[in-house]
Amino acid sequence: MDRSKCHRCWRIVHRGRHLSGTVVSGPFVGREAIQRYWARVTATQSEIEMRYGPLIVADGRVAVEWWVNLRNTGAPITLAGEFFLLFTDSGQCRELREYWAVTEGRVGPPDWWQDSNQF
């Protein structure tokens, strides 16, 4: 999303029009749609350094925070986010929710960050 669209969204939310809404990209249903999405959003990325925090696992759910430094179309950016996954009884992922914040430049994680030893 470009900066002007982001500012427009925040202005709309701030005015209270969508306070009970959900911002969603997708959904992408089926393996082919999911593969196309990931291929598109990662096509301009390079020099990816991804770190994961400890996994939180309970009742068919997994949550994990992540921190990534990368180049997007050549420019350094930092993303901090979380994956929240729901699994079927047979262990297949049935839903992935991803939240993130992005900033320009390369930024290290905060002092309290703990890398996972589970990967």
Describe this structure in words.
The protein has 119 residues and is α+β, with helices and mostly antiparallel strands. The protein has a domain at 46-119: Nuclear Transport Factor 2, Chain: A (Roll), CATH 3.10.450. It is 20% helix and 40% strand. The protein has helices at residues 3-14, 31-42; strands at residues 45-52, 56-58, 61-72, 75-87, 93-104. Strands 1, 2, 3, 4 and 5 form a 5-stranded antiparallel β-sheet that branches. A hairpin with a 2-residue loop joins strand 2 and strand 3. It is flat.
List keywords for this structure.
119 residues; single chain; alpha+beta; five-stranded antiparallel β-sheet; Nuclear Transport Factor 2, Chain: A
Helices and strands in order:
Elements: H1 3-14, H2 31-42, E1 45-52, E2 56-58, E3 61-72, E4 75-87, E5 93-104
Brief overview:
With 119 residues, the chain is an alpha+beta fold. The chain contains 2 helices and 5 strands. The chain has helices at 3-14, 31-42, and strands at residues 45-52, 56-58, 61-72, 75-87, 93-104.
Number of strands: 5
CATH topology of the domain at 46-119: Nuclear Transport Factor 2, Chain: A
Q: What coarse outline follows from CA principal-axis ratios? A: flat
First and last CA, distance = 30 Å
Spans with pLDDT under 50 lasting ≥5 residues?
16-21
User: Which percent band covers the strand fraction?
Assistant: 35-45%
| Radius of gyration, CA atoms, in whole angstroms | 16 Å
Level-1 CATH class name of the domain at 46-119: Alpha Beta
Helix/strand-derived category reads alpha+beta
- The arrangement of helices and strands along the chain is HHEEEEE
Largest sheet: 5 strands, antiparallel
Total count of helical runs of at least 4 residues: 2
Mean pLDDT: 83
Binned, the helix content reads: 10-25%
